[in-house]
Inverse folding.
């Protein structure tokens, strides 16, 4: 009886930690490269849900007195050449801005596209940037999306992660 109760409790605990229904998750862990604040990515968590893509980019340090930018490449159909970039920028004393770009070339460059529901938030206390992109902004033809994050812009140094593949929920 005790063993059954322990097994039931363990099962419930695992279910509580599981991803929401209809969402597949993944993460990218990046090493500490001892870069300046606002550029060194620690981890990216990806929630590729049925209705939206949720991204959580954790930094080693975020300084609210310095400009910061993070970009995440979303490749919704890796066999196709169409890619997107969700970008969030925060300047000292201003609210952050987040938008979606249609990727052009291979250097995280792109052209802004209109799409309702794109959101971003900066939490300096937790060194965390969260972004949300509705699946309606992305083509429906892919089931396995690729993701990669960067903080590099212009000729400045920064960080970039490896790719992660996460199935669409």
């Amino acid at each position: 009886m005790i063993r059954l109760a322990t097994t039931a409790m363990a099962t419930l605990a695992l279910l509580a930690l599981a991803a929401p229904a209809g969402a597949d998750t993944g993460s990218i862990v990046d090493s500490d490269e001892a870069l300046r604040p606002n550029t060194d990515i620690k981890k990216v968590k990806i929630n590729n849900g049925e209705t939206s893509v949720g991204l959580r980019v954790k930094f080693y340090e975020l300084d609210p007195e310095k400009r910061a930018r993070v970009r995440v490449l979303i490749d919704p159909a890796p066999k196709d050449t169409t890619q997107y970039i969700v970008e969030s920028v925060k300047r000292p004393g201003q609210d952050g801005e987040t938008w979606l770009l249609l990727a052009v070339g291979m250097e995280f460059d792109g052209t802004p596209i209109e799409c309702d529901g794109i959101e971003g938030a900066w939490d300096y206390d937790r060194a965390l940037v969260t972004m949300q992109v509705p699946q309606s902004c992305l083509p429906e033809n892919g089931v396995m999306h690729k993701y990669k994050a960067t903080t590099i812009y212009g000729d400045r140094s920064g960080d970039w992660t490896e790719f992660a593949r996460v199935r669409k929920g």
In short: Residues 1-21 have pLDDT under 50 and may be disordered.
